[in-house]
Backbone:
């Protein structure tokens, strides 16, 4: 789907730039809804925008709970607070779960690209034991090694969040702007914005 | 409800202590579920534990969306990432919404206590225009003042999250522990813990 440049994107790029001296500035909290209807919330790492789009990329383990949750309810909300510039972005949208079984060649290529864009150390996590399952100390001793030229392993999963609303709050000047997307008749996504009370 | 001292509480108190030099260490992200079944996520401020309990206090505006959402689905998950010690707490539980119309005298007292515990500047927010509604510039000129001895205004709302599960992750030593509560036959809450894979 085509996209007219999103008006909130420059605000976010500016925040990333002004907080780039902080390692945690690329971390945000991702909320999903569980099977039981209760919300889940965890910290994940921003892996950049999908090429030529406003969609957010996140790498995750296909064995983690959030994958089941997203298959049940594909909607998520990012809450991204920048601790130095005091800016918050709440980004709501639908998540596309791209694992190795995806039938779309282009998506499989994006997953591969995201795998190679992450460090070898990050990639090793996906060879580890099933996240969230009981820890068995023997597993620690299994030394895992990885060929840096090898493609994504089965557990590696790319999440792509396509935003449809963004709520921006600046705590320094106390301004808040709400951005809402609509799909135009030509299939392009367009954005409207409105200043709202903080 | 009585509570045996929660085993995760000391870990959290330690994290608060070791990150206390950072203003944002008392901020966490609170996820709820909206009417439309989609998750919501925003940054809020930790206002301490409720006296003699493991319940988390949060102040909020009764006119904000989260109040409607919590009336529809009272469950929430806190995601609290400590940026200096690299520790994450995911705290799930049920939220009690305490506004001025609450029939329980003890809860009304807790709300009042939380009002006076917050700064006069914080209290002034609750006299401002309806959060989330379109911003009208004239509202800015209305100088609001507040008698510091005056009790909570109508828009002031205390949220109390009573946790039933805590997922603790330490990214420095890569340890993760899951704490689950159960209600014992004598009505006391008790906690079990298990090391799980990160």
Residues:
């Amino acid at each position: 789907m085509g996209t007219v440049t999103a008006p909130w994107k420059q605000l976010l790029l500016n925040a990333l730039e002004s907080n780039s001296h902080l390692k945690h500035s690329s971390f945000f909290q991702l909320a999903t809804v569980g099977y039981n209807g209760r919300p889940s919330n965890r910290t994940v790492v921003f892996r950049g925008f999908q090429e030529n789009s406003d969609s957010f990329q996140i790498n995750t383990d296909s064995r983690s709970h959030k994958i089941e949750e997203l298959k049940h309810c594909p909607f998520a909300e990012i809450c991204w607070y920048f601790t130095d510039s005091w800016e918050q972005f709440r980004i709501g949208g639908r998540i596309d779960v791209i694992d190795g079984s995806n039938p779309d060649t282009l998506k499989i290529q994006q997953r591969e690209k995201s795998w190679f864009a992450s460090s070898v150390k990050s990639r090793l996590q996906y060879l580890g034991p099933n996240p969230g399952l009981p820890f068995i100390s023997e597993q620690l001793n299994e030394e895992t090694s990885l060929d840096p030229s090898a493609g994504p392993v089965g557990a590696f999963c790319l999440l792509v969040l396509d935003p449809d609303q963004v709520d921006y709050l600046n705590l320094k000047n106390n301004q808040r702007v709400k951005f809402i997307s609509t799909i135009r008749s030509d299939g392009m996504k367009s954005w409207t914005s409105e200043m709202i009370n903080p």
